[in-house]
């Protein structure tokens, strides 16, 4: 796993779910960690985006945590590992005695490896609770829910590589791959367009994805700039248009009748739902001309193979599950599933968010998406683990935060930063500060969440250890670490093994990541056929049930993985965001990301290359709104919601729709999450980060340092 010093190791970029291969070399000096391209890496063939190229910059950053810390009288002091771990174990034991096992919550980390997330969920379940979750809850929980219930598996149905040759239309809704998955966009999507594919982008904001498809000599890009939260009506216009054309010209290929008859159920439900649907009124609600939506519908339905890509603009709504269900409806009625260049594809966020879910770090599923309340599934895992698994699904991570002080008294947070990433940050912070009995944070930096911890455990980074991660198209790949380990830090895996062993004697004694992987594959059918040797440098897509299986680049060729093998169509109706504009808060606030920053910014804000490009937060405001509120481009403005306010620079631009303001969650001093609403999708429990009500005004008393004083 480790190399000789100076020898570059082949590993995977620690940022996004594209899973680009990179090489890393350790120099002689501390702080001398070098990035090198990996020319024939399977996903990216050597190309990287700005983040991949800058990834090594934070490995030896001076802010790295170096020793375990224990808080005493409100101040941290350095502690030995033995002291810190004893404290963690004692607190966990006393919480269980006093409140039972559901008194604890566990946050896995999509920044850590499959083996580590496998261990944290095993630890939670051995402790006696299913209360373990990860950032997918704030990310694609709704997508995973819709895909799993309607098609069978909570993952991309296709892969990036099978687009290139075959997709005729790329339908990109609520995703900005030009910035968030840049290599997928440049290497696969743009390539498909150069070869003749058309792109339909559905997003309220113009961005680098929009720019990237303005290719000279081609006119194959449409941008439907809708109002945030109107994706259901927009897709209903698309669906109704296809149904109408089919009725006018049956058999002309608008609907794939054979596919609908043989492989789906629920078509009648869809037609009934749309029977009295008024397309003109819906288009007005979306703020998009009806003829543009109709043209997009035609292009999608007329394509031989059309692939849908779906992102946070769809998932992060209280109607997130229904949003994605409507995309599934579109793919099913046109037969765009179970073949190359098609499908419904969530571009997964973090470098290992797919894997973190696959290995069971979620409150309702065991490894391999086996439902925790399914007796047979539970028993098969219990046989390997040798202890009883609780049958009741646990709370999700945002629910765990909501239950702090009520049923939840202790939290084990590995590699997440909920104080900045969860919605309604002011309230989240109050709960963590005032109502949480015990908090342990295992991270590489002193995050906003770690500041509030009782014990902080310093972990090694991705560059210092080995394990596996699973990218957005289900490719399980090995990461390899260089020799050195920073100061007195420990690998996440070793920390979890030690905590587990101190608590339970058995079940947590592993000889490194490969040993953990061997147990993981025993309990996880979709990864059962994988070994470290077989993964090699190319990796393997799941499902890989038996050794020697190559894995599938697309799913559902013959049938869906539902109980009856059919894909489920279900008509859905518009639901407004839970908070809509009114006189007091007249604007729609939506939040999303920048290419140069990453989630809560703990890594990207410390990278000189990345933070130089975008040093502070800002808000995009349409020129008509700017005029209405007396705002000039570059002014400091106060952006306010019912839950809080931030002071940021105004960027007056036509990139955003009138009546909508757009900002980011990346910066500690002015995070979007001071403003966002913590209402959840009922089923998937994902927060509505993409729509709230806000007001804006010029800052008459600019705060000292304003929004620019970020660490
Ligand atoms: N550079 C960079 N890359 C990243 C990340 C990062 O922070 N920075 N984070 C990673 C993670 S964890 C994730 S989950 C992915 C996320 O990647 P994306 O899914 O692309 O996420 P966002 O940028 O949050 O949102 C996508 C788009 O949704 C649009 N949008 C907002 N509201 C709506 C709406 O109501 N409807 C529609 N249709 N669109 C809407 C926004 O304008 C935005 O362009 O990126 C990953 N990659
Ligand atoms: N307003 C708004 N809020 C959002 C979103 C949005 O679009 N808008 N998007 C949501 C989404 S999609 C997501 S995924 C979440 C992300 O929410 P989080 O997962 O909380 O955010 P990250 O910044 O990715 O946190 C990862 C943490 O892991 C640490 N880390 C990195 N490497 C390691 C390691 O090897 N070991 C350990 N132990 N720690 C490590 C980092 O320092 C960092 O603190 O944010 C959500 N919040
Ligand atoms: S596209 Fe994603 S995985 Fe590839 S280099 Fe950029 S951040 Fe890393
Ligand atoms: Mo995410």
Automatic annotation (TrEMBL):
- What residues does the 4Fe-4S Mo/W bis-MGD-type domain cover? 6-63
UniProt keywords, alphabetically: 4Fe-4S, Iron, Iron-sulfur, Metal-binding, Oxidoreductase
This chain's protein is named: Formate dehydrogenase major subunit
GO MF entries = 4 iron, 4 sulfur cluster binding; formate dehydrogenase (NAD+) activity; metal ion binding; molybdopterin cofactor binding; NADH dehydrogenase activity
State any GO BP term from the record: respiratory electron transport chain
State if 4Fe-4S is listed as a keyword.
yes
Query: Which species?
Result: Halolamina pelagica
State the family named in the UniProt similarity comment for this chain.
Belongs to the prokaryotic molybdopterin-containing oxidoreductase family.
Task: Cite the InterPro entries for this sequence.
Answer: Asp_de-COase-like_dom_sf, Formate_Dh-H_N, Formate_DH_asu, MoPterin_dinucl-bd_dom, Mopterin_OxRdtase, Mopterin_OxRdtase_4Fe-4S_dom, Mopterin_OxRdtase_prok_CS, MopterinOxRdtase_cofactor_BS
What's in the GO CC field? membrane
Pfam family name, one: Molybdopterin
